[in-house]
């Protein structure tokens, strides 16, 4: 049997490889790292999580992301299985020890007899064979050039920023305290999964002034800053209005200062545990394009972080993605070259879970093709189906931008009234319908 070739062993490529081998089809997994590096990756392991260690909400009743988790688990997803094994307390979110998680995914794939690892960079798109391109947002320049040559159009691009990581022992816990927002979580560890740093109004105003005045990273010639709104650098948010951060990542709601319960913080900076040892914490929502020296000065203005030591400072990089509504069919094949499927963030989905989910689908579809079958996508009443429907035709091509999974992508429920007051009933109805329909889709395979 001819193998399926996968370019890229990130979250999407790793999940695709796993799904294909579960169906008895061999895989050749091409990965350029560590021989060819990117500025954002730190290792040669597969499924490395670059920007954050969180897969976001794990609530599969009231949250579309949690429903996507459920579907990936139901489909025997490797990414969700390894995330579960290396889970860290994070309130209602699914956060992982990123190094242990990546190492585990790598070990599972290297130990799989049907997987052949092929080191080295792929610089051209093949004309024949069964291929999945899962190179992610940091697709190499050579391969990006080859993709543009095949598609006849420029890939779109936006800028994505990396949040800084702090050594836990340098956080002043006489100022900060441990608490998840609204004490969310079933265990004490979950309810205390975040470290919170409070700010008074004066401290917040001074922080905003410093943030706006800080020296920023310059863009290269010819690049434009078309940010994805779900991952804006904090200084870009601050430029949109002085109160923007206080209603975004620095919102003080659902938190009570353990040291001063009677004092309501004007703003709160949250840090989330980044490894199993609890020695590293990332600053939640603090993606930034400030220069390194400025980052250290500005972030040490945060109460509790005045003596902070940083394991990693923030950064910024260019992400590329296809105009998928015009280029991909509903089997995720490139219309000009149907021997090529695309998967992951390069297709215009945003987020770790969404990227891995597109890898899962592409893998199953490629395996079906290898077995001389056809696999349609899941119904778009499901989280996975809603995403693939959006990127392969549901979105407006002229304004196409990266998209997280959300209930706005699901077809409406006629029996459920709209409006905010209807969410309590509407969201569980969405997720129950999705579970039923996804289970039925799995049963056909």
Structural description of this entry:
The chain has 445 residues and is α+β, with helices and mostly antiparallel strands. It has two domains: 4-154 and 322-431, FAD/NAD(P)-binding domain (3-Layer(bba) Sandwich); 162-318, Elongation Factor Tu (Ef-tu), domain 3, CATH 2.40.30.260. It contains 13 helices and 17 strands. The protein has helices at 11-22, 64-74, 78-85, 98-110, 141-151, 188-191, 201-213, 234-239, 292-299, 324-327, 352-370, 383-394, 423-443, and strands at residues 4-7, 27-31, 54-57, 87-88, 93-96, 115-119, 130-133, 156-162, 165-167, 177-178, 194-199, 267-273, 280-283, 310-312, 315-321, 333-334, 337-342. The strands form four sheets. Strands 6-2-1-7-17-16 form a six-stranded mixed sheet, with helices on one face. A six-stranded antiparallel sheet has the order 10-11-12-13-9-14. A three-stranded antiparallel sheet has the order 3-5-4. The radius of gyration is 22 Å and the shape is globular. The model has no long low-confidence stretch (mean pLDDT 90). This is Methylenetetrahydrofolate--tRNA-(uracil-5-)-methyltransferase TrmFO. Keywords: Cytoplasm, FAD, Flavoprotein, Methyltransferase, NAD, NADP, Transferase, tRNA processing. FAD binds at residues 8-13.
